[in-house]
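User: Teach me something about this protein's shape.
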Amino acid sequence: MKNNLQSNIGLALLRIVPSAMLLSHGIPKFQKLLNGNLEFADSVGIGAAPSLFLTVIGEFVCPILIIIGFNTRWAAVYSAITMSIIGFVHHAADPFKVKEKALMFLVIFVVIIILGPGKYSMDKK
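Assistant: First, the predicted structure itself:
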């Protein structure tokens, strides 16, 4: 029983803390989008505006869903894809220390996809 409690608290921390940290990257992009400033890197060739919009979903909308534990696995899939593009495409030519943060977020979101949100989430209510 105690191990289950510890596992669920651990899953909640794994969901909430990194997602809150990712919001520090997503909020400025969200504000940029709201202000109509659509200048943004076009790493995958779909245009600056669509790239910004999709990045806002991956770094702002999905982390909020992950924090509250709503559609957690699907939100984590989208955020993991976003981190993959940032780490492996946008920062492909950069040294490891530049792409390290995106790759750490990627691993965290993959673990969330595998393990799920845990007991303390809207998905489990």
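Now, about its shape. Helices lie at 2-34, 48-68, 72-90, 96-115. The chain has four helices and no strands. If you'd like, I can walk through any region in more detail.
User: That's plenty for now, thanks!
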